[in-house]
Hints:
With 295 residues, the chain is α/β, with parallel strands linked by helices. It has helices at 12-28, 46-49, 58-72, 87-95, 121-126, 166-175, 189-197, 215-225, 243-253, 277-284, and strands at residues 3-7, 31-37, 78-83, 101-107, 133-137, 149-152, 201-207, 234-239, 258-263, 289-293.
Amino acid sequence: MVTFHVLTDFSAAATNALHYAVxxxxxxxxxxxxxxxxxxxxxxSAAYFGSPGAVCTAAxxxxxxxxxxxxxxxxVPCATSLLLENPMQHLVATLGxxxxxxxxxxxxxxVKSMQAAASSAALRLVQTLAQxxxxxPITYRAGAIPRRVVLDTDRQKVRLPVAASTIxxxxxxxxxxxxxxxxxxxxGDVEDLLNRVIPSxxxxxxxxxxxxxxxxxxxNNIQATGLxxxxxxxxxxxxxxxxxxxxxxxxxxxxxxxxxxxxxxxxYPGKQFLxxxxxxxxxxxxxxxxxxxxx
Length: 295
């Protein structure tokens, strides 16, 4: 069973991310755990998890959490936690590296500069946690289950935490269909049948060099990560001048409604991370992003 740990500051972006998490939890039979961080104003974590103004005391935050939880419980089981002192340390200690968890956060501004992204909660979380992180941009309205998924690989070796096993299990549940395949004499039925037979998950590699990589190498790299273990998928590659823009272009071309990849926060430590492709995707993607940090 998957628990979606939704971080909320009660903003519009956080509410949108919560709606998306509830949709996923209902589909896979999961749970929702609502978290609100209320660090002291002088604490370093206040730059990433400060409340937007309306909620300023612990009592107000607790009341708001319970009110939201009551609404969520109409659809899925929901728990709440209010974190006051050392909130990031407490969250890391609670979640650890065990499988079955997905941390969910909203992205209020997917067109922000990378300088502004330095105070992004999503980038802070992915550099700290060893759990899958789902980032939902406010430009993406929750409602339907994601059916077209693009998983990008940079073809580099990677070590992943135990919690990475949550991703293939979740993708399998999201993309599996129990509807029977039918074919009649109606126009367009053959095309519709083919679209349903072709796997809805695409393994992707974007490159900038003149020579294209062997697709078997891309496929082997994806298999080595284990992120699509047991998930039917196709494999493709595409050449583009910019890796980040190429990934977003390919996701749009494949009509993806979910993008997933490994975040390279170890390969690009400290301030270098803001210049990485994965940080740019987390900050700028217009569709939900499901990522797992390397270890």
